[in-house]
Amino acid sequence: MMRQDVVLLDRATDAETGLMEKLEAHRLGRYHSAISLLIFDGAGRQLVQRRAAGKYHGGGLWANACCSHPLPGESVADAAVRRAREELGIAPSLRPAGTIRYRAPVPAAAEPDGRLIEHEHVSLFVGRHDGPVEPHPEESDATEWLERAALLAAIGAGGFVPWFALYMRTLPERPDDWRAEADYGYFDLM
């Protein structure tokens, strides 16, 4: 498997400080850059995916449409477009929807203590897609379109990654109210 690096950031300034191999960054809980896509269809339903069982963390849990990391030297906007295509086989219209920062434990069956630590500065993107979704089997083993009430009930019942539950508790209810310049804060869920 090819080495995958994440872009490390300074927690106080969000300035880039270097690179680290992705799994090691999650083992150590190092603060790094990430992206998350929240995709809606024309009926206002939100796309969720169940992470493939073989994922390095959060396997089998439900999440937002797409979450990943920009490559070194890649803009977060370019990473969002790339990962929508790679993970879901889609090319949604996307716009920046603000940032959120958090630290949270995430289940990781292959790790000795059964968890990894997400410590991320997330650039959020909201988009629209009407049409088929073709998830890559190494990324996702199921997708669903859910109306907000059903989605909130499902999150309340469990089985979702902690970052998506945080997004749904923190972001304004209407995606039209999500703004590129919005900073939704820092949350320590440890």
Automatic annotation (TrEMBL):
Pfam annotation, one family: NUDIX
Active site: C67, E120
The keyword Cytoplasm belongs to this UniProt entry's keyword annotation: yes
Record domain Nudix hydrolase: where: 30-170
Record keyword Magnesium present: yes
Reactions accelerated catalytically: isopentenyl diphosphate = dimethylallyl diphosphate
Residue positions binding Mg(2+): E87
Transmembrane segments annotated in the record for this chain: none
GO molecular function: isopentenyl-diphosphate delta-isomerase activity; metal ion binding
Location of this chain's protein in the cell: Cytoplasm
Alphabetical keyword list: Cytoplasm, Isomerase, Isoprene biosynthesis, Magnesium, Manganese, Metal-binding
Residues that bind Mn(2+): H26, H32, H69, E118, E120
GO CC entries: cytoplasm
Entry cofactors: Mg(2+); Mn(2+)
Family annotation (InterPro entries): Idi_bact, IsopentenylPP_isomerase_typ1, NUDIX_hydrolase-like_dom_sf, NUDIX_hydrolase_dom
Co-factor note (free text): Binds 1 Mg(2+) ion per subunit. The magnesium ion binds only when substrate is bound. Binds 1 Mn(2+) ion per subunit.
CDD domains for the chain: NUDIX_IPP_Isomerase
Main function: Catalyzes the 1,3-allylic rearrangement of the homoallylic substrate isopentenyl (IPP) to its highly electrophilic allylic isomer, dimethylallyl diphosphate (DMAPP).
Family recorded in the similarity comment: Belongs to the IPP isomerase type 1 family.
Protein name: Isopentenyl-diphosphate Delta-isomerase
Annotated organism of origin: Devosia enhydra
